[in-house]
DNA sequence: GAAAGGATACCTACCGGTTGGTATCTTTAT
DNA sequence: ATAAAGATACCAACCGGTAGGTATCCTTTC
């Protein structure tokens, strides 16, 4: 607020701050409780300033979600690049990336975010399209039924990460990680 | 509106209609977009009438969620009662019940469950407690790691049910069902 | 058995508060 | 100087919830 005048103006930085704060707030109190005013306050900007960067609240949410998908996609890409085994390569990366999203057994804020965003049909489409595109790309190496189970289990893990905020549902995460990784390897 | 006067008053029926309409609306446009007015309209009742049946919006949501959990629990119980094999009995029922929730058209109740859980920490607790209770009850038959994977895959399937509204992510559902069922049986 | 009378079910109308969004002015950087 | 960046003040719409009235049902009483 007060620093906004002293510090040199860096619109890119403010925009990033808005995105990050929105992600954090949405993770904390759900996407339903996300308000423009709260995001603006958290980023040290007034509501008017907010609307200078984003034409609408939905535009912000879309941007945050696109950010999250891009980050996840990057992680998957990196994991795949370092994987010599062709069979199940994408699935293995998908599963491992999901595991990395969690911190100390709990779901990372980004996970909570992406899950709450599935409430929005339009954002669901964004995710669906990403997934379908990647799947079509790796159809030859990742079409096996057992790999589908592994991917679904990763999704389930993502969901369970939310519940583990309240209590521990999964006993041994490392064992599960190894078990799932083994599931993606050729027999 | 006009029929409300001629038709015999059946509060139980109206209450049920409110619950069902709330579940349907929540499935269609997310729990965030759920409004008391919309629920009342869909059930053929005014907003004032709504508040006669439920003291608050949260009370309605809680009731809907409890309803869904109870229904799912009943399905699991029935499936377990008809299963002679002790090993993985609960997991098998859990997986099969998830598949059955998925089959009824576009708006699966399990979809709403996950959405509600994400939105409200208190509802997450309700689900956690149910799951933990059942797991403790069947710890001897369902503690195997492979069974955990099967349950997680079921959760993931539930999540994917959301996405299937927009596009088909899962190729062969029946094959997946068989594969997952086989996973829960002793080797 | 039917009128009385209380309880239940439901509606109309409204209120306080919040939210997304806008119009307008001021400050900063180049 | 001028265009971007941001502040201030404000609005229209909506949402959950309340107040108070009316119709309908179910007993009770004679």
Automatic annotation (TrEMBL), chains A, B:
Domain HTH tetR-type: 12-72
Lineage: Bacteria, Pseudomonadati, Pseudomonadota, Alphaproteobacteria, Hyphomicrobiales
Keyword hit for Nucleotide-binding: no
DNA-binding region (UniProt annotation): 35-54
GO molecular function: DNA-binding transcription factor activity; transcription cis-regulatory region binding
Originating species: Methylobrevis albus
Keyword set, alphabetical order: DNA-binding
Protein name: TetR family transcriptional regulator
